Amino acid sequence: MGGLSGAARKLNIRLAMQLEGIDHVAMSVRDIEQSTNWYIEVLGFERLHEGMWNGVPTFIGKGNTAIALFPVKSHAEPTGPSHEGIQMLHLAFRADRENFLVAQRELEKRGIKFEFQDHEIAHSIYFSDPDGHQLEITTYELLQPSELSCQAESRHLWIVLERQEIPPAFA
User: Where are the alpha helices (DSSP H) in the chain?
Assistant: First the structure.
């Protein structure tokens, strides 16, 4: 028990490891260059660790977030997110309110369809990369309905309507 503090040794408690965060997420893609360029152009990522490992994987990232892109081993089609099997469902990026709005405008400008979701404690938009990986941009700085883009506003309206409960007197 050499690494435990005196109090932990007395109580015979094993301390959990202390992680700093997620280093990177590894994803398979059909075309590493196409995917690299998409993440750079659409999400503003940068190439990381250039010249390493003969380009496989190719690392891209922004801030403390990194993605390792690996070539898919076959010509498999994307399966898309599903709760049917054990797999990663989506990759979420956090943004402040201003950049959440900028992201919506940028996606609309590029013709990338997205869905808005009001999670009550956060607002998110969901969209896919060229290989079908579902991505999310989320903010905990909640937006007012007047700030939502046209795409997001129509989705927000449906979510609000879905959450409305009909009082028994009107049922």
Answer: 6-11, 32-43, 97-109, 150-163
Q: What structural domains does the chain harbor?
A: 21-76 (3.10.180.10), 88-164 (3.10.180.10)
Q: Nearest 10 degrees: CA dihedral of 80, 150, 155, 107?
A: 20
Strand arrangement, sheet containing 65-71:
25-29, 65-71, 58-62, 46-48
pLDDT at 120: 87
User: How many CA atoms, within 13 angstroms, populate the side-chain half-sphere of residue 99?
Assistant: 10
Peptide bond into 71 cis (omega under 30): no
Mean pLDDT by 10 residues, the chain (171 residues): 57 72 89 95 94 86 92 72 66 92 94 93 94 94 66 46 41 36
Q: What whole-number distance in Å separates Cα of residue 147 and Cα of residue 103?
A: 13
Cα separation, 56 vs 73, whole angstroms: 12
User: Which residue from 133, 104, 119, 108 is spatially nearest to 29, judged by alpha carbons?
Assistant: 133
Cβ burial, residue 112 (10 Å; 0-12/13-18/19+): middle
pLDDT value for 125: 95
Task: Give the C-alpha separation, 145 to 71, whole Å.
Answer: 41
For residue 137 the two structure tokens come to 């941009």
